[in-house]
Amino acid sequence: MELRTLRYFVAVAEELHFGRAATRLHMSQPPLSRAIKQLETEVGAALLDRSSAGVTLTPVGAVLLDEARALLDRADQVRVRVASAAGAATITVGILGDSTDPGATRLAAAFRRRHPRVEVRIRETDLTDPTCGLHAGLVDVALTRGPFDETGLTVHELRADPVGALLRADDPLARRDRLKLADLADRRWFVFPQGTDPLWQAYWNGGEPREGPVVRAVQECRQAVLWNGTVGMTLLAHRPVRGLTVVPLVDMEPSRVVAAWSEGETNPLIRSFVQIAIAAFGA
Question: Which pTM value belongs to this model?
C-alpha cells in the first residue's frame, strides 16, 4: 500500500463522500474512485459500502481507517525527525499582534514537547493583516482570528470568543449591563487603514461603514477610546486598562480563533501544528 493511497482512503472515510474528499485532496473524482477500487483489490475486501443513500464504512474499512491514521501519523513523525536531524526542520508561525491567549501558551508548550528540535520562527503582525502574512507567503501557518479572505487558504476554527463594546469608563453607555449595535450607531469608531481586508474591517466595525481615528494595533485601539471617547469592539476576555470598560454586545457574532494555512499544503509540521492547536485551544 502506498501512503498516498492511504491518504486518499482516509479522506473518503472521513468525508463519507467522494466529491467532498476529492475537493479536500485537490483532485478530480474519477482518479480518486479508481485509487480506492485498486486499494480494495489489494486488501481483498470491500472498504466502503456505496449506495444511493451515501457512502459508509464496512467493518474492514473501519479497521483500515484506524490503522491508516496511525501509519500516516507515524510517517509524518519520521519526516519531521529526519529533517530535524539534518538541521532543516523549521516552521514559521504568524501571530496576530498583542496575543496573550492562554491557548497559544499551551500550544507553544505542547508543540515544543512534541518537536523539541524544530525551530519555530514567529512573525507577529498588526491588526491590518489578519492572515499574518499567509497571503504574502511569509509564514507557513497563522494563529489568528477571522473573518478574512480565505481564497487559497484552509481555515480551521479553534474557539469562538464573545465580544463587547470598548468604552471610556465615564461614557453614559458604560453603565449598561449589555448593548446592541444600534446603541452605538451615532458614535465615532476607531477604524483600520484603507486596504485592510474588507471582511475583517466589516466585522470589527459591526457590519457598517464607520468614521473615526485610524488604528493598527490593539494598544492603539485602547488609546483611541481613552483619548478621543470613540468606541469600538474588543474581546470580553480582554481586561481593559484603567479608565476603560467593556460592555457585552448581544447582537454580535463571536470572534473566531482560527488556524490557517495554504490550501494543498502537505508539510507534516503544519498538520502537527494544527492537531496540537486543536487540543490546546479545546483544553
Answer: 0.73
